[in-house]
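Team,

Forwarding the record for the chain on the shared tracking sheet. I've put the sequence and predicted structure together so nobody has to dig through attachments.
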Amino acid sequence: MKFLNIFFLATTFFLAATEATFAQSITEKEQVHDAPKTITTKVKGITCSTDLKMISANVNKLKGVRNCKAGKTGPATTFEIAYDPALITEQEIYSAIQNTGSCENPDDRPYKVKQ
């Protein structure tokens, strides 16, 4: 009887330790997917600060984008974009930039991403 109690306790302890380790490894894997990725891209065709604001707002609306920070207006404006690669791809971000309408004529698509 004593042997069965010891065996039962040892088995219970072993199973509890295994489940805790398994649960921890699942949590660690989930955290790897949550790590944001940052890209820096240059965009041509921006002529004013309103263009910067419109592009940044459109990119920030995308599911998975955590932050979109624009540089100064120039021949090619730099954008630094932090995003979750599990939720959105770089191509989807580039597409959102290039599909943003111009502040002068909303039907125009003057912005081009330099890759």
